[in-house]
Amino acid sequence: MAAISWKWKDAGTTLTALEQPALPAERTMTHRIGYLIGSLAHDSINRILATALVRLAPSSLELVEIPIRDLPLYNRDDELEPVAAVTDFKRAIEQSEGLLLVSPEYNRSIPGALKNAIDWGSRPWGHNSFARKPTGIIGASTGAIGTAVMQSSMRSVLSFLNAPQLNAPEAYITFDPDVFGDDGEVKDDGTEKFLRHYMSEYAAFVERVLSLTAPGHVGDQD
Ligand SMILES: Cc1cc2nc3c(=O)[nH]c(=O)nc-3n(C[C@H](O)[C@H](O)[C@H](O)COP(=O)(O)O)c2cc1C
Question: What is the rounded (10 degree) CA torsion for 200, 205, 206, 211?
Answer without folding.
Answer: 130
